[in-house]
Automatic annotation (TrEMBL):
Residues 15-307 form the Enoyl reductase (ER) domain. Gene3D superfamilies: Medium-chain alcohol dehydrogenases, catalytic domain (3.90.180.10), NAD(P)-binding Rossmann-like Domain (3.40.50.720). This is Zinc-binding dehydrogenase. It comes from Cohnella zeiphila. Keywords: NADP.
Length: 310
């Protein structure tokens, strides 16, 4: 297998994304070759594809079957159903995945469900851990209809918190209520959540003015963690960090986290047990990548979009 098919950036085609032949991956000693079954899209990688040079290969999340186990003996064996992530290039037929970023898929979890978990699920998990003991506490999640926000709401509820989910439009509330989140408020600004506060912990995925506004609704000893800047997509990382109000925690990059494979397993186990519900809003063939990516950019997708590789 000298070549495989993968999604690449091509500025000359509509949507800048197409499926093309690329060189097959050559795994390092600690990487497994995974035949990809499904991938999920994240806003960050889709935005990056909009400004990347021709030939760049986007994609972080994936699920599939191990075609070749890692040469160093680490990680799952050939034939195992797995999910995980790579720095880029997961939107492909085959990917070389570090075994430290790979976990097995439980029997009751589908490839599509598993593909939603790595970036969005882990971001939500690590963000919620910043809140400490949440039993009986009041928690606000902004941008709650997005992938990270949706998972954060569910994890906060699992921890015994009283959760308020802030969404931009009322039609985005239904999927959250279906998972047991009762207090969903809709509004283009943070003021919609004011009557439910003050809050012991705020999980913000919006950044910018929304973040500055919600910090006013914290308890005096409350905490706020910022997980992104969905409302300011063109802001540089340095500008984003400079705009964070004093006292707000900022989640470190995924590359600084440890125990990723173990934590992926934790998330998958919750899905298998019916305690965590991946918010899949759209499931399509990867041949529709340009259309689905544009829909995500246009805020036409609530939760996660999954593409099946065939």
């Amino acid at each position: 297998m000298n070549t495989i098919r993968a999604v690449v950036v091509d500025p000359q085609v509509e949507g800048r994304l197409k499926i093309d032949a690329v060189e097959a991956p050559r795994p390092a000693l600690s990487q497994a070759l995974v035949r990809v079954a499904a991938v999920s899209l994240n806003l960050g990688e889709v935005r990056a594809a909009g400004r990347a040079e021709a030939g760049w290969r986007p994609g972080w999340d994936l699920s599939g079957v191990v075609a070749q186990a890692a040469a160093d003996g680490s990680g799952p064996q050939a034939g195992t159903r797995v999910f995980g992530m790579v720095p880029s290039g997961s939107w492909a037929e085959v990917a070389a995945v570090p075994t430290a970023l790979l976990a097995e898929i439980p029997d009751r979890v589908t490839f599509a469900q598993a593909a939603t978990l790595p970036v969005a699920g882990l971001t939500a998990l690590y963000g919620m851990e910043k809140g400490g003991f949440l039993l009986g506490r009041k928690v606000l999640v902004t941008g709650a209809s997005g992938g990270v926000g949706h998972f954060a709401c569910q994890l906060a509820r699992q921890a015994g918190a009283y959760v308020t989910a802030l969404v931009c439009r009322e039609e985005r509330a239904a999927s959250l209520r279906e998972t047991g989140i009762e207090n969903v408020v809709a509004g283009e600004d943070a003021a919609a959540a004011q009557s439910s506060g003050p809050f012991d912990f705020i999980v913000d995925t919006l950044g910018g003015e929304a973040l500055a506004a919600v910090t006013k609704y914290l308890e005096p000893d409350g905490r706020c963690v910022n997980l992104g800047a969905a409302t300011q997509p063109d802001m540089t990382l340095q500008a984003r960090l400079a705009s964070i109000p004093e006292g707000v925690l900022v989640l470190e990059g995924m590359e600084r986290q440890t125990g990723i494979a173990k934590n992926l397993g934790r998330l998958a186990a919750m899905v298998a047990e019916g305690r965590l519900h991946p918010p899949i809003d759209r499931e399509s063939s990867w041949t529709e990548i340009a259309e689905v990516a544009q829909s995500l950019l246009n805020r036409g997708i609530a939760g996660k979009a999954v593409l099946m590789i065939s």
